[in-house]
Design brief:
Elements: H1 2-8, E1 13-16, E2 27-31, H2 38-45, E3 50-55, H3 62-70, E4 74-76, H4 83-94, E5 98-101, H5 118-127, E6 131-137, E7 147-151, H6 167-182
Keywords: Acyltransferase, Lipid biosynthesis, Lipid metabolism, Phospholipid biosynthesis, Phospholipid metabolism, Transferase
Catalytic activity: a 1-acyl-sn-glycero-3-phosphate + an acyl-CoA = a 1,2-diacyl-sn-glycero-3-phosphate + CoA
Family: Belongs to the 1-acyl-sn-glycerol-3-phosphate acyltransferase family.
Length: about 190
């Protein structure tokens, strides 16, 4: 809540669709990514604690590492299949936790949505967890612009379950995820 006050100073903070976030059970929260402020803004906007997979560089040094772990984040090695991060994510979901992912894998400097990385698709299909799409609006300049967080209805990728997916099918599943996010952007 303190962060809401910080980011909302001089700007509004509006959240729509909070009723779409399941109160319990493992969920994957997916959102567009355009700012370093996106994880704390997204985490403060939901009615559940969200664990984020974050690039390992954010864990460099004692203080950064302690902070990132204290807020429930865990490191991922980008550019490779990081089995440790995947196992951590799947365990969190199995334990009924909320996992926050930015399927684009990195911030969009233009604000335009990028393609989903295949890791987000793989986690969604393997865990079978409901996916809650979120559109983050105004996070590029959270101290100047009004923040509008649009939360969509949960969905699954059940049409992709129970079979080994080829790369093309994973790309299509990624497009489904990104289309759900795009519907929530203004």
């Amino acid at each position: 809540m303190a962060l809401r006050g910080l980011f909302g100073y001089g700007a509004g903070w509006k959240i729509e669709g909070l009723e779409n976030v399941p109160k319990e059970g493992g969920i994957i929260v997916v959102a567009n990514h355009q700012s370093n402020f996106d994880p704390p803004i997204l985490g403060c906007s939901l009615n559940r604690h969200v664990h984020f997979m974050a690039k390992e560089e954010l864990f460099d040094g004692f203080i950064k590492n302690a902070y990132m772990r204290a807020v429930g984040s865990f490191p991922v090695k980008r550019g490779a299949a990081d089995m440790g991060a995947i196992k951590t994510a799947l365990k969190l979901l199995k334990d009924g936790e909320a996992l926050g992912l930015f399927p684009e894998g990195t911030r969009s400097k233009t604000g335009k949505l990028r393609k989903a990385k295949l890791g987000a698709v793989m986690l969604a299909v393997k865990s079978k967890a409901p996916i809650v799409p979120v559109g983050l609006n105004g996070t590029q300049h959270p101290f100047k612009e009004d923040l509008k967080i649009n939360i969509g209805k949960p969905f699954t990728l059940d049409e992709f379950y129970e079979r080994k997916l080829e790369k093309e099918e994973m790309r299509v599943a990624g497009e489904v995820i990104m289309a759900k996010i795009a519907e929530l952007l203004e």
